[in-house]
Amino acid sequence: MGADAWLRREGCFTPGTPDWAYVPIDVPPGIGVLEVRCAYDRSPGNSLDLGVFDPAGHGPGGAGFRGWSGGARDRFTIAAGHATPGYLPGPITPGRWHVALGPYTVAPHGLSWTLDVRLGAGAGVTPEPCPAPPRAAGRGAAWYRGDLHTHTVHSDGRRTPDELAAAAADAGLDFIASTEHNTPSANLVWGRHTRPGLLVIPGTEATTRDGHMLALGLPPGGWAEWRHRAADGALPGVAAGIRDGGGLAVAAHPHTTCLGCDWRFGYRDVDAVEVWNGPWGEDDEAALRTWDGLLRAGVRRPAVAGSDTHTPEQPVGSPQTVVWAEELSTSAVLAGIRAGRSYLAASRDIGVDLTVRADPAGEAAGPGRVLRLPPDTEVQARVEVGGVPYGEIALHTRDGPRVRSRGDGVVTWRGRAAELGYVRAEIRHAGGMAALTNPVFVEA
Q1: How far apart are CA 248 and CA 79, in angstroms?
Q2: Are residues 332 and 358 in the same domain?
């Protein structure tokens, strides 16, 4: 078989088919371009994901991963010098490639599909990876504002990385996390698009059939395995791999209503929970209840927020995670998130300062800190809020809300250490949640 040959593969998925199918494509030596076009029966109830692996393999952790676009594209091209966003440029290695098909949903009558594959001539030089720097110019130890859930054209978003970086800078953010669905392709080019003073944390969103997980702080070419379900028992190993590299595994939008998006893995193996995803709604209220239930049960998983922006109509940084970090670097920001030294806010206009102390002269502890005190110690909690003039401020402990007040300003409350467990703040306004802090823990 010579170059510029077209191959066709056809098939049909029926209801109950496995989540993933791998269509073999034998590539001879001398091929410089691989082009794949996918057509399928788009009747109501049918949806098909698309990706590809090279001869290095498609097993768990897929050493041969060369790209993924899910349902966002029906075609892609890979060559040494370029690739469709979501896919990785590089040599077209001779051997057996596999086009990965994921029947996301299958109608009762089935899902028929056709692949047309072109093996073409071509040459080129593979571009060197250009990841974002692991640190940016910051303010030393300080509060830093960022968006931990973003998408570009490298998965199913409409912005380019350059457009997203510009929007983040305009929103006054210090950092964003790059979380494309199941592909690290954006992380290999972010260094060409970031701005002075803007940190880009490399990550992916592992889009499983039983929920989505943000993998934050991955190596630039790394990705988190997504081809598993809760019953497979693979999540502990996947999450451990993320942590071993210094990253965080975050349960994303655990109660959102899109098919396959709600979180079914439990929370033992994740490091944090995305309690607030995009505009505040009922799914976020449900996530808040779940998270507070974990806190009451003694399971400490910090809350985070992200816009999940896909389009310019979804503002980046709304909501945002505000983190106390020693510097503006990936490792320092993730350390602050891991420790719960953060709060969530609807915009950069909102600021929250929550402190808990054992006496007026004692050291003030903020979110993520632990106070260990005798049970009868009187504890003072204080929260100062700015930017929510018509809001309601509430202080919560393990027994629920303890005090409520309206408007900007300062709210204080006193209680016995034995009665608290933790103290956290919620600030609400007419649009829903305005801000939410992680807890200060009180052990008595």
Answers
A1: 33
A2: no
Distance CA 33, CA 80 (A): 8
Q: What angle do CA 188, 193, 198 make, to 5 degrees?
A: 105
Residues 279 and 359 in one domain: no
Q: 248 is in which domain, residue-wise?
A: 142-345
Q: Cα(146)–Cα(214) distance, rounded to whole angstroms? A: 15
Q: Which helix (H) or strand (E) holds 338?
A: helix 330-338
In this structure, the answer to whether residues 85 and 198 fall within a common structural domain is: no
* Domain end call among 312, 345, 378: 345
Regarding pTM above 0.90, the answer is yes
Residues contacting 120, CB < 8 A, separation 6+: 3, 4, 31, 32, 33, 34, 35
Residue 360 has pLDDT above 90, yes or no: no
3 state SS of 241: helix
Give residue 2's pLDDT band: very low, low, confident or very high (50, 70, 90).
Answer: low
CA-to-CA distance for 84 and 61, rounded, in angstroms?
Answer: 22
Three-state SS at 408? coil
Residues 243 and 340 placed together within one structural domain of the fold: yes
For residue 132, being part of any structural domain is answered with no
